[in-house]
């Protein structure tokens, strides 16, 4: 999937190359305050999360109206 793009924003599925940036957010105590898990403590934990998140995204993608 290429994503959704507007002049100011690009929404796309996370990629393995995003792991460092995602870890920056997922390890931040303030950012994770209302998240369903504690902040990540290692980059390996974020890699594992990204692997599962990507799989979950693919599993639910057909449920998005107008997407095949």
Walk me through what this model shows.
This protein is mainly alpha-helical and 68 residues long. The protein has one domain. It is built from 2 helices and 2 strands. It has helices at residues 19-26, 43-60, and strands at residues 4-5, 10-11. Strands 1-2 form a two-stranded antiparallel sheet. A hairpin with a 4-residue loop joins β1 and β2 (10-11). The chain is globular and about 35 Å long. The mean pLDDT is 83.
Write the topology of this structure.
Layout: E1 4-5, E2 10-11, H1 19-26, H2 43-60
Antiparallel strand pairs: 1-2
Helix pairs in contact: 1-2
Quick structural overview:
Helix content is 38%, strand content 6%. The chain has 68 residues and is mainly alpha-helical.
* Largest sheet composition: 2 strands, antiparallel
Helix content estimate:
25-40%
- Beta-strand percentage? 5-15%
Radius of gyration: 14 Å
Structure annotation, total helices: 2
Element string (H = helix, E = strand): EEHH
The spatial strand order of the largest sheet comes to 1-2
| Average predicted local confidence, pLDDT | 83
What's the number of structural domains?
1
Structural class: mainly alpha
Poorly predicted segments? none
Give the termini distance in whole angstroms.
10 Å
Q: What would you call the shape? A: globular
Give the total of beta strands: 2
